[in-house]
Prior knowledge:
Number of strands of chain B: 1
Shape of chain A: globular
Low-confidence stretches of chain A: none
Mean pLDDT of chain B: 65
Shape of chain B: elongated
Distance between the termini of chain A: 42 Å
Order of helices and strands of chain B: HHHHHEH
Helix content of chain A: 25-40%
Distance between the termini of chain B: 31 Å
Largest interface: A-B, 43 and 28 residues
Radius of gyration of chain B: 24 Å
Number of helices of chain A: 18
CATH superfamily of the largest domain in chain A: Spore Coat Polysaccharide Biosynthesis Protein SpsA, Chain A
Oligomer: heterodimer
Number of helices of chain B: 6
Number of domains of chain A: 3
Mean pLDDT of chain A: 95
CATH class of the largest domain in chain A: Alpha Beta
CATH architecture of the largest domain in chain A: Alpha-Beta Complex
CATH topology of the largest domain in chain A: Spore Coat Polysaccharide Biosynthesis Protein SpsA, Chain A
Strand content of chain B: under 5%
Radius of gyration of chain A: 27 Å
Number of strands of chain A: 27
Structural class of chain A: alpha/beta
Strand content of chain A: 15-25%
Helix content of chain B: 40-55%
Amino acid sequence: MSTSRRVAIVVLCWNRWDLTERCLDSLRAHTSAAEAEVLVVDNGSTDVTPRELAKRTDVRVIRNERNLGFVRGNNVGIAAVPRDADVLLLNNDVVVRDDGWLAALRRTAHASPDVGVVGCRLVLPDGRLLHAGTIVLPDTCWGQQIGSLEDDVGQYAGDRDVQGVVFACAYLKRELIERIGGLSEDFESYFEDTDYCLRAREAGFRTVCCGDVTLVHDEHGSTSGDPGLFDALFRKSRDTFRAKWLARLEEHYERDVTWQSILNFPTGYAMSCRGLLRGLDDRGVRARYEYVYGKGTPFPVAEPPDSGDYVLNVIAGRARERRPRVAVVYGQGDVFRRNRGQHRIGYTMLEVDGFPRSWVEQAHALDEVWVPSSFNRDGFLRSGLKKPVHVMPLGVDTDRFHPRIRAHRNPHGDFVFLANFEWGERKAPELLLRTFNRTFRAGDPVVLVCKTINRDPSVDVRARIRALRLSESGGRILFLHNVVFPYVELASLYRSADAYVSVSRGEGWDMPLIEAMACGLPAIATDWGAHRDFTSDDNCHLLRIRGVVPAGDARCPYYAGFSWADPDPEHLEVLLRRVVEHPDEARAKGARAAADVATSWTWTHAARRIRARLDAIGA
Amino acid sequence: MQTLNQTLNRVRPRLIKNAGPNRHVFSKLETRKQAPGSRLALAAKARNDKRAMRPKPRIDSPAPARRQANTMDSPVTPPPLVLPVEALGGDARIEALFWRAHAEELSAQLARLERRLLALSRRLPGRWAQLVALDPEDMPNVATWPDPLAGWHETTELESAHVATALPRLWDRLEPDPSR
């Protein structure tokens, strides 16, 4: 495809010369005249803008006698662009800060004939992420910016298909403009961008967010001084949008499911539930979320109402169906009985080689059982389950966990191993700490960082560590204890390490492991458990076990009578050394891990499997 | 003979000037000027006056066997020390020549040591470079193994934090702290 096509950058302005001047100066600093013509549409400014624009020789100016609004003003600019050029709409409150930005957008636009609109990442002046695409759900017809107000750690890199992008920066390919014309003048400001992207989709063009380009955006620069004006424009445009698109947005949903689970607590089920629900929505499954725990369950606590996430709040806010056609209980097997569906599914996991009798009994009252791994499928069958068992793997958010996430590397150059776990027998912390301390010397440029959590008042972690009598001349270990990072920053934690180590005795999935692998870290993981479905000798250093032994954590009643692995400390020693002494091999495994996860183990893959099963059930 | 500390004091100004990013490493050393009339001052003066003579072959070097025996681990008691100058018979002219040659030899040794320290400080990471300036008796106090439980606050409460601030604090703990 041609990537040499000329581009015209259309900058619409209305007063606020300070913003316009800053925008144009940044363009001049980071864009060559050979690459693009800059066309400024002055939307009837009454301040110094006309006079100042007249002084500039690096832009072509079109002056509207009055303020035509955002849409008509931009359409004037689009119409003035030569018919052989693509168009890039740029708000005057945007600042370009990197060379190559335009070439990257053009490259994405011409990567495939069906790409029509290309947007980019936008950050606020304070560095927080503002936009990495947009999503509008029919329930609210509220355009939500993806990634909005997250700390920017480099998430949403690369090219991603999105429902829409904001037109603070939008690259419109000529072929698309020829097909559908300019912005819809049904809108004055706001929603015209999502409208345009949906029109593009109807015409067979994709909208892509190019994560390799990041611009700075003072949001609402031109209306920020007048909240009344903003509200009026926004409401009017939203009503227009709803009338035009609501029915089409509803058509996105082809399956319905009631999803009974846990969402707003920092538990493994809750975190993975969030990924599943977002993925299902994207795959055309209209999920209705209900909290499955609370009074009368093993976790008798009410759930906080706010998930902090637009899509999840919408899903949780959907009206309950009185008798759902299909309902999934995603949680421990002792709440399977709360399933309210006509077709009843229990979706669960456990870290040992079987399932408690009470779970199996409740499972027998269901129509089918889902588990995330073949390890758990075998466990259920071993425990006597007679119902169909389907493997529905979990996933990982590769927009947030990938190898290009920003790191905070150790400036002293030591090789950093990272372990991330809740303190407990299952995670074998004593084995890890003792072995690491024995394997290395204090003077070796190697350190182990353990991010640990303990919420059990009966466990004194400090005393446990002290009892290990770690040698001062042995490998150095540091702790981040009971520290909670925003979820998006976990990727930054992983990227700040050189390798990840999980010496667990058993796993139901091992989300931290797959997150670390998605970030491209070479990992050491026990050769036993659910994670064996996504690990192999090619993408992981598999830690041998000495056998399986009775699971010995008295705090977890579900483990009683079952077994888990006994990881081999001598082999751990060998692997720790191997990772440090063969860094090229380790890096290659890390790169392979990231590639494997991205191509097979994302939430999109997980949701696709579930969607296929729901199709088969006829949900 | 010069102690390591005296040697460092002498070369300190040049080390600070040439040490680049590791300049702070040498800033804690105390400056002691050479006392007027000291052997090193006299040697420097002699060199400046261009009256130095070709040094004689060294006669104060211990024999190789002796050098081996003088290692720290050796239980061997050295024989009574006879200074070479005492063997010169009290001749003032010869004694002056001896001291001049000796001063030049010391000066060359110091210059070599200075180059070696400078090269070492440039090759080492900052946290290790500061060890170059430590007195030998302070070396054992430098912690290279950060106590994993230092500052530990046993709690079941979770504390919100950011990676961008928590990790740099963690990496700081890998720095040896000579004051401990």
